[in-house]
Design goal:
Protein name: DUF6879 domain-containing protein
Distance between the termini: 35 Å
Pfam families: DUF6879
InterPro entries: DUF6879
Organism: Streptomyces synnematoformans
Helix content: 25-40%
Strand content: 15-25%
CATH architecture: 2-Layer Sandwich
Domain DUF6879: 1-159
Number of domains: 1
């Protein structure tokens, strides 16, 4: 899906943590106080973001959060979001700490070209248990995206507070 979308790949993230085995060493380094310079961070993901951005394709996401931020979110903001934003990803944060969550009935998903939905399925602790191509009408997911974008703030703005 990431190689073949034409205009936009967009993600809604709902969880306070994602258990990704490949990140264990990086999470431990974060716990140990080691930080990276987002401007010098490079990965296959950031390289893809840069390439697609130069091709006029958009990548974006909204992450729904509550304070205090989980350790994983602090890690993710520091390690990935800053670098990904520099590479062209449009990252926004929807903080629902002091208000009702307008997306309480949504789950994590990817939306490609406003027409193809991939549902992301997780255990409550953030372990991914599967992905599923959604076969129905994407209208509800387009509405989730509309609400998420309208109710969120840019990552840089959120991180500066």
């Amino acid at each position: 899906m990431f190689q073949n979308f034409k205009q936009e790949a967009w993600r809604l993230e709902m969880l306070p943590q994602y258990r990704v085995p490949q990140e264990a060493e990086e999470v431990q380094a974060f716990r140990d106080g080691k930080r990276i310079d987002p401007a010098s961070y490079a990965s296959s993901y950031t390289e893809r973001l840069i390439r697609q951005h130069s091709e006029g394709k958009r990548n974006g996401r909204v992450h729904v959060v509550t304070r205090p931020l989980s350790e994983y979110l602090r890690f993710e903001f520091s390690r990935y979001y800053r670098a990904h934003a520099l590479a062209g990803e449009e990252i926004r944060i929807l903080d629902v700490t002091d208000r009702p969550n307008p997306l309480a009935d949504a789950q994590d998903f990817w939306l490609f070209d406003r027409s193809t939905v991939v549902l992301m399925n997780y255990e409550p602790d953030g372990k991914q248990i599967g992905r599923k191509l959604y076969e129905g009408d994407p209208a509800q997911f387009l509405e989730y995206q509309r609400i998420a974008l309208a109710e969120s703030v840019p990552f840089a703005e959120y991180a500066s507070t």
